[in-house]
Amino acid sequence: MMRRRRRASCRFGGMDVLKTFSITNIGKKRKLNQDFVYTSEQPVGKLPNVFIVADGMGGHKAGDYASKVTVETMVEEIEHSQEEEPAAVLEQAIRTANALIRKRAGESPDLEGMGTTVVAATCRGDLLQVANVGDSRLYITNRREIRQITRDHSLVEEMVRMGGIGREEARNHPDKNIITRAVGADDTVKPDFFSVKLADGDMILMCTDGLTNMLEDEEIRMILEGSRDMVEKAQALVEAANEKGGRDNISVILIDPLAV
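Above: the chain sequence. Below: its structure as tokens.
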């Protein structure tokens, strides 16, 4: 089952700036979709646009609740933020969401231990600014390459960085789903921030690990290259992940920065 599907473009000064499409799918093994996606091609507060992907974790419905509340809280905070810099706006939003998730988890045994990953982005002209907590990812992809911009906050990624295991071994490691940072995991949260200069032909991909655990990066790039339009590209990614087993929920946001 696919849901929260959106296709849109944004106009600024009479020129198309962004084309986007988002999709989320329950996969083949899960009974509940704990992913949540949000896209706004129009300004939100002082940000010109906002894109967020969250992958919740916890007991029955707690992960679903964590991702939804986190994204909704972030959007509300962004709308009212007085910060000028995008990184500061996103950091404030993530910290506020973290505090609320911690508070709600402490109030209900059913929500105890819940948390969520978050990757959020905003694009102004050819500058993309990104914040992430956890192992949901943002990539830049084009005809030549696919490049992961975010860094996974996961146990296995730490092992790779320290040289304990190789990248190929990491893909099939039994602990690959253990993350080291999440919104709601601790009283304080530390997002990572990235700024990327976009080039002609670049496309932005944001996704949960339901996609990246099923498909190699190069497989993702080839699927994107082999599909005609944005809707077909996103649907083809979801279908390919399900064909490989669909062990988790799969969420994708594609952004084509046409102004570049």
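Residues 2-257 form a domain with the Phosphatase 2c; domain 1 fold (CATH 3.60.40.10).
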